[in-house]
Amino acid sequence: MKIAERWFERKEVGDGVTLLYEPHVHPFIRCNIWFVRGRDRDLLIDTGTGVASLKDAIADLTDKPLTAVATHIHYDHVGSLHEFDTRLMHEIEAPRMEDYREFAALTSAGFPAVLRESLAGYGLDGEDAVLVDALPHDGFSLDSYRITSTHATGHLKEGDVVDLGDRHFSVFHLPGHSPGSLGLFEDASKTLFSGDAIYDGPLLDELPDSDIAAYLTTIKRLRGLDVRVVHGGHDPSFGRERLIQICDDYLALRG
Fold it and tell me: CATH code for 9-254?
């Protein structure tokens, strides 16, 4: 397998927000990593797979203190969390980060059978599929890939605020995809960073710790939100009209 010239790509999306992503990672686990500039602090929302150093990749973006928030515990969102000094997670899932035993794999053979079935719709049939098309460096072992355990330096819950000085993000507890899924909402700009609670793709609600009843409540809440733009955990960003359609589709399916 080839060695990647660089592991991360980036795109300025406006309003002080930069999207970072891992182009060599299969879309099934290619997390959107959001960097938000603030006056006093900068904010990083999710940290990707950890295959390569995210801290090194964003070193030129900031010289300020940085707050890293994990929207939930799944491995494609917490891989580089340990690299940052300030690490925030929802209080339900933060303890699970300290001795990370969640599922994590870069090959379909490493997926539990219950999850492997879901890969078929993403072109990853069989037990020999690989979820990366390059390696970050010589000697990297797909089979030895692991998430580095770490502890959250702070726990978040509904109603908390992540303060950047000139920007303030309210914490929404959005369970369903996972018990401690959260979103960050900036009322001033009507911007929601939603993690995997909602994005413009198939919503996964049958994972081992998913809860469809809780997800329905979350989707109903999000449908009523006065929002201008949603930056999800995967796939392209979208506006309120598309948000309503995604919610309605899910409610028709599960409600």
Answer: 3.60.15.10
Segments in the chain forming alpha helices (H): 54-57, 75-78, 113-116, 212-223, 240-254
What is the SS3 assignment for 64? coil
Cα torsion at 223, 217, 94, 45 (round to 10°)?
-10
Within a 13 Å sphere around the CA of 186, how many CA atoms are in the beta-carbon half?
A: 21
In tens, the pLDDT along 79-91 reads 999 999 999 999 9
The 10s digit of each residue's pLDDT in 102-130 is 999 999 888 877 777 766 667 776 667 89
Sheet of strand 168-173: strand arrangement: 161-163, 168-173, 182-186, 191-195, 229-232
DSSP state of 132: B
Q: What pTM did the predictor assign?
A: 0.96
DSSP state at residue 231: E
Residue 92, Cβ neighbours under 10 Å: how many? 19
Mean pLDDT, all residues of the chain: 95
